[in-house]
Every structure is written in C-alpha cells, then in structure tokens.
Design brief:
Layout lengths: L1 H5 L1 H36 L7 E6 L3 H8 L4 E16 L2 E10 L11 E5 L7 E5 L3 H4 L6 E6 L5 E10 L6 H4 L2 E5 L1 H6 L8 E6 L6 H17 L3 E6 L9 H36 L1 H9 L4 H42 L10 H27 L3 H6 L8 H5 L9 H10 L3 H37 L5 E10 H9 L4 E14 L9 E7 L10 E4 L9 E5 H6 L4 E6 L2 E11 L6 E5 H8 L3 E9 L4 H17 L4 E6 H44 L1 H9 L4 H41 L11 H27 L3 H5 L3
Helix pairs in contact: 2-8, 2-10, 2-11, 2-20, 3-7, 8-10, 8-11, 8-15, 8-20, 8-22, 10-11, 14-22, 15-20, 15-22, 15-23, 20-23, 22-23
Length: 775
C-alpha cells in the first residue's frame, strides 16, 4: 500500500489501463448474456413459426388436417399483402397481415402494446418497429392502397409487437395488422392464403421441419388445395441473428486482444517496480525471507490493482452492456430492458480482473524473487547501461542532437518500449482493418448498384402488357429508358420431388438497357436464349448443377444456368422475358424500371409522380414505387453500421495504448531524474526538456504506426472473410487504405502528445538540487 501511495500516478495509470480493458470485455459479455436471455424468453417464448406454406384455396378443413398431424404443435391461417401508404407527402411500402385469430397462443404470438388490440374492421394496428417510420400515431388516419383496390383511409387503432419480424425501420417497411374484412375493403381477397405451423419437437432440425412441411403439403393437396411455395427458416433463429452473432463474436475477439494488451502493460509496470526494488528484495532474503513470501507480496499487489479496476469497471460495463444490448435488441425487434444481467457474468468479470494481472506477472515476479542475493547486490540498479552505446552509435550521428537523444532514450529500455509499441500497434491494426473493411464494403455497394442503370421501379397493382407499359412510361419527359419486367416466384423441384425452397425470378429483355451485371462466372442473357437463367451467387450455392428443374406458375420445366452474377444477400434469378411469356402464355409484366436522363435527387420525386400519373391515366394502376437511391442508402446503413460497431473496439485498444505510453513515459522520467537535473544545471530550458520527452513519445508512436501497417493486412483479410460469410462477399484489401493510414498517423501522434504531456510537465518541475539528491 505504501508503494501504491508513493507512486500515485503510476498506480492510477495501471488501474485505468485495466479498467479500459475490463469495460470493453465486460460490456460485450453483459450484452451477449442479456440478448441471449431475451432471445430465449422473448423470441423463443413467442413460439416462432417453423414453416410457412402458400396455399391456393385454403379452407378450414385443410387447416384442421394439418393441425391433426402428430408432428405439428400449432397451426394458423393468415393472408399477407403488399400495399402502399401515404406519409409526409411521400409513399411508403407496407406489408399487411390478416390473421384468423389475433389472440392465438403457441405460434408466432403477436401482442398489443398500445392503443386498441386487436384492430377492428376498417382499422390497422402498426407494428412497433414501424411506428416512427410510418410517421403516424394511434388515432391518426393512414391512406392505404393495395392491389387494384382504391385508396382507403384506415384509422391507426393501436400498436402491435411481433418479435418474429425484422425491424420495420431497418427494412424500410410499414408492418400493419388488419382483419380479413379490412383486406376486402382494400380490394384484396378475404380468404387466407398462407398456413403456418410450429413443430412439436422444439429441437427439430431444419431438414426435419422440411419433412414435416412436406407431410402438411400432402395433407393439403389431398383436400384439393394447391401449395405454391414452402418456406422453412432456420429453427429458433431470428432473421438478423446471424449478423448480430458474428458482429459480437468479432468484437469479443478484439476485446480479448485488448485485455491481453492490458496485461502486457501491467507486466511493464511490475518489471519497473521489481527492478527499482531489487536491492530491497535481496536484503529481505538475506534476513531469512523465502522467495515465495516475497513473491506473494508482489502478486497480492497485482491482485489488489485488479480488484480496484474491477470495482471501477463493473458499473461502467453494466451501463454500456445494457445500452448495447438494447440497441441489439432493437435491431432484432425485441426488448432487453425487462431482463437482468445474470450474476455469473459479473462474477466472471471480477475474477478476470483479479486474476489477469496476477497471471500476467507471475513468471516475472518468480524470476525476480529467485535471483541470488549476491548477484542482486552487485547490480547497479536502474542506471544507464548499454543505452550509451545506442546514443553514441554512428548510426544516429546524422540526426539532429535532440532527435538522436530522443531516439536513444526510447531504445534505452527496449522491452518496455516494445510492449508500448505492441499496445499502440494493436489498436492501429484494428483501426486500419476496420477502415479497410469500410472502404471495401462501400466499393462493393458501388459495384452492386453500378450495373443497375435505372432510378426507380414502379410495381403495378396488376400485370399489364409489357410493351404498353414501356411505351407509356417512356413517353414522360425526362425519362431516358423504361423497361418492363415480369416478377414471379420459382421453386427448385428435382424430378420426382415436391417443390423445395423458393426464390425470385425476374423476366427481363436479354438486351436490357438498364441491367449490365457483373458476372462471377458464365455469361449474361442472350437474345437467342430460351429457358436459360442467370442466378445470384447465393442461389448458385443451392442449385444442384447447370440444369435445374423449376416450378414456375405451377408449371414444371427444365432450365439451364448460363451464368452467376454478384447480387449479394438474396437468392435471385433472371430469365428472358419472352421465355416466361411462352411458358405462361401471357406477355404481361408487373414491374417497370425507369431510368432518368438527369439523375438528380431533387427531380426524382417529381419524375416518379409524372410516371405514376401517365401510367394511371392509361388505366395502369401503380401499387408502389421503389427508388434505387433510397434502397442503396438502406443497404449502406445496414452494412456500415456493422463495420462501425467493429471499429469501436479499435478506440478501446487505442485508449489502452495511450495509457500504456503515459505509464512508460512516467517511468522513464522517474528513472532519469538525475539526468534531467544535470541538464537543468547545464542550462537546459523548460521548453527543451518538454520537447525531449514529447519527441521520445512521438518516436514510439511512429514506430507503433509503422508496425501496425503490415499487421493490418492479415487482419483486414480475416475481417473481409468473416463479413463475407455472414453478410456478402467483399474484396479483401491487402494494402492499407491511404486515408486510413493518414488518419491513423495523425491520431497516434495526437495520442502520443497527450500521453506525454503530464510526464513532460513533471520533468520540467525537477530542480537540479532535488534531482542530484535523488536515489
């Protein structure tokens, strides 16, 4: 305790360093524990749907037949419809859900959390995550239009919460719950079109659920129903869970690295203490103290530092963990506030805080306490040694004297310098890798949208003749090109099997003027193609080969895969529009992509309104429009947010490096007290001494910056690979991004100047008399 109080600054820096590392790791552990608990009790507690079957002609008998299957725990019927709502002078995409029983338990439970629930006929309940995005509140009226129906005012009766949905604000969708009669009021069929089920075995695998869904399909088709699609999500996993888990795992790895760096800096401090007290240790041993007794004293001191750091870090980690867990819960669309952080996570944080410095310094303490007494008493202690060789080396002769002296001082205690450089380089490595990943993600988004040469897509309320759509849209002033697309759902269906997973199939003209995709392999559609598809990279992973059996519009046919394109994040295929028209005997399209002559955001809304008016003036009603620019912003927001969360760990590591440098420079000033006194006696000014200490810190900072550049390359590759496994593939950058390297250089120099400020000021206050009397 006397040692700690005699060197308050050194002790405070050691504790602060441990606090930063423990806060980073503890906050992530608290976040993981809270989200895991909320997932089990909220998401899994809602009995998420195991499988969804799209059924034509669904009736009560089919629902009862599936309910009677022994493998099925619960079933429900619902209808889902895409609509549009007016909000703030613009138009938003809406997804409406009509359930047979809003209060049904045991399957995808939806709860009312505000206003009236369930909604009455002619009303809509907005899902909680969409409420702010919809710009509406309880009691307001929304103008809703779906399909070919008229625009109807629906009163917002209340707020609902469905934890199985992705957040509406994140996907830019307004989720609404309505009754079947409200669906009819909007011009949509009142009958249900989907059957959802929950498997009785809560631990059933995805393949086992698919087998259950196949039995349900058979039971429906025996009663005259027609199942057009079967969707089986990963059991028990939220739609955004994989991204969140990957992000938290990566951050956890960086937090563990931060703790390791903290431990190295504690070793640095303990080495200085042991070196300064080597003679005291020898005297105690000469008086009969066993080496274990002496070592226990130092290890108890290390444990006390850790316990003090744990006491300070625990409430901060809990606060950050709760905030971060709430943010993650918002991204998963379920709350974490009602749940408490488990006690075992707090116990782990205290144990790690106490044991980490002990484990890090144990070998060092044992070695110092076992040194022979005679060897220690002959040791001159902390004095200049071989650093005179460094300072007088001819290699430094060409440098200005202050810079050469600063470099020599930095190299005086090489192990301490290396540990400080390692701490700074670790933070810089993560900083540069996150910067590289951000640049790679933005480049990939650029490439993703570069081949989509249109500005917005109008979705028709009902399919229209393709040629008429194109001619009418192209007649609007300012429209440079317009192209009609056929949008269908297809399902892979190997010969002799029932249709499996579904995906979007777009029919486009082979010589498309608005699509110039980047090919991963193979080729794009040709004018001579018939029953040829080009698939996205994600869909290509699931297809069995170059020829696939598909069910399109209820018709089974064979298609050849001509190429693979880089469309990340979704299973998607393109086919010649003429081939789909020949297959269906119908040349009508449901989408029209419009490219403007001048791509200005200010004029885009006006152009959208003009195209809508032109189409609707010809009797072609538009259900909704989707801007490519807004879609790009939504994707960028998703991806960059993930990268920024990863980059946040770099700041914690940089803070640890800065604290380590402050500790290193404080020890250096303390050890060179006599030298500073001599310099003062010879006339050195305050500014000269201040500049010498700051220059030494800048030398260490520059070395840390130089080391981090090559280290960032493998970390950048690892981050790009991990990001590609969860989100979508991005090119790994194997050279530090220039702007990132420059900003890291400026940042590390600023950290060095700030970290060295207090030790430098202390050095200027050393008087010659006090310095020469220092022992």
């Amino acid at each position: 305790m006397r040692d700690a109080l005699a060197h308050k600054g050194r002790t405070a820096l050691a504790v602060a360093t441990l606090v930063v590392g423990l806060v980073a790791a503890g906050a992530l552990l608290d976040t993981w524990a809270l989200v895991r608990r909320a997932t089990v009790e909220t998401y899994l507690g809602s009995h998420p749907v195991s499988a969804t079957l799209k059924v034509e002609g669904l009736d009560a008998g089919m629902v009862d037949a599936v309910r009677g299957l022994p493998e099925v725990a619960a079933v429900r019927a619902r209808r889902v419809a895409i609509a549009s709502v007016d909000a703030g002078g613009g138009e938003l995409t809406a997804q409406l859900f009509a359930l047979a029983d809003f209060g049904q338990r045991g399957i995808g439970e939806v709860e009312g959390v505000g206003g009236a629930w369930p909604p009455a006929d002619g009303e809509v309940a907005i899902e909680k995550s969409s409420l702010a995005f919809s710009q509406a509140g309880v009691g307001d009226t929304l103008a809703v239009r779906a399909g070919t129906g008229p625009r109807r005012p629906l009163r917002v009766s209340g707020v609902a919460h469905d934890v199985g949905l992705a957040p509406g604000w994140m996907d830019h969708v307004v989720y609404g719950f309505v009754t079947p009669k409200t669906m009819a009021l909007l011009g949509l069929p009142e009958a249900f079109g989907e059957l959802q089920l929950v498997a009785r075995d809560a631990n059933a695998s995805r393949d086992e659920v698919r087998a259950i869904a196949a039995k349900a399909r058979g039971a429906i088709e025996q009663r005259g129903g027609r199942v057009s699609e079967v969707d089986v999500p990963v059991p028990g996993r939220h739609v955004h869970a994989a991204q969140m888990d990957s992000m938290l795992l990566t951050q956890g790895a960086f937090a563990a690295m931060t703790l390791l760096v903290c431990a190295l800096l504690v070793v640095n401090m303990m080495a200085a203490i042991l070196a300064s007290q080597a003679r005291e240790i020898a005297v105690m041993k000469s008086l009969g103290a066993r080496w274990g007794q002496v070592a226990a004293m130092y290890l108890a001191f290390a444990a006390a530092l850790g316990l003090a750091a744990s006491a300070l870090s625990l409430p901060v980690a809990v606060g950050i963990g709760r905030w971060y867990a709430a943010l993650r819960g918002e991204m998963l669309n379920f709350p974490t506030a009602p749940f408490a952080i488990p006690a075992w996570t707090l116990a782990i944080q205290v144990a790690v805080g106490a044991l980490l410095p002990v484990a890090a310094t144990a070998a060092l303490v044992a070695r110092a306490c076992r040194m022979p007494v005679a060897a220690v008493l002959r040791d001159p202690g902390i004095v200049a040694g071989d650093d005179f060789f460094v300072r007088r080396s001819a290699a430094l002769g060409f440098l200005p004297r202050p810079l050469g002296l600063a470099l020599g001082n930095a190299l005086r205690k090489r192990r301490r310098m290396l540990l400080t450089i390692a701490a700074l380089a670790a933070g810089g490595t993560v900083y540069l890798a996150a910067h590289n990943l951000r640049a790679a993600v933005l480049d990939s988004v650029d490439a993703m949208f570069a081949w989509q040469r249109y500005d917005f897509v109008a979705r028709m309320a009902e399919a229209q003749p393709a040629t008429a759509l194109e001619e009418r849209a192209a007649s609007v002033p300012g429209v440079e090109r317009a192209e009609a697309w056929v949008a269908l759902r297809a399902q892979a269906a190997p010969e002799g099997s029932a249709p499996g997973y579904g995906f979007a199939l777009l029919g486009v003209p082979p010589g498309s003027a608005v699509l110039k995709p980047a090919m991963v392999s193979g080729r794009w559609l040709d004018r001579s193609d018939a029953r040829v598809i080009v698939v996205s990279r994600e869909l290509a992973r699931d297809l069995p080969g170059d020829e696939v059996e598909l069910v399109v519009s209820g018709l089974r046919s064979t298609w050849k895969v001509a190429g693979v394109i880089d469309v990340p994040g979704q299973p998607l295929a393109y086919a010649p529009r003429a081939s789909l028209a020949a297959l269906r005997g119908d040349d009508r399209a449901g989408l029209v992509a419009v490219g403007l002559a001048q791509r200005a955001p200010a004029g885009e809304l006006a152009a959208i309104l003009q195209v809508r008016e032109a189409l609707e003036g010809a009797g072609m009603r538009v259900a909704s429009t989707t801007s490519l620019r807004e879609g790009r912003h939504a994707i960028e927001d998703h991806l960059v947010m993930v990268v920024d969360f990863l980059g946040a760990m770099a700041w914690a590591m940089i803070a640890v490096g800065g604290l380590g440098m402050a500790s290193t420079m404080g020890l250096a000033v303390l050890e060179r007290t006599r030298e500073i006194g001599v310099m003062r006696a010879l006339g050195a000014s305050h500014l000269a001494i201040l500049g010498l200490v700051e220059a030494e810190g800048c030398v260490i900072a520059l070395l840390g910056w130089a080391v981090s550049l090559p280290l960032s390359l493998p970390v950048s590759g690892a981050l790009a690979y991990a990001f590609g496994q969860v989100m979508f593939p991005v090119p790994a950058r194997y050279l530090p991004e220039a702007a990132g390297a420059a900003s890291w250089l400026a940042l590390v120099l600023a950290v060095a100047l700030a970290a060295c400020a207090w030790p430098a000021l202390r050095a200027t206050r050393v008087t010659a008399a006090r310095a020469l009397a220092y022992a």
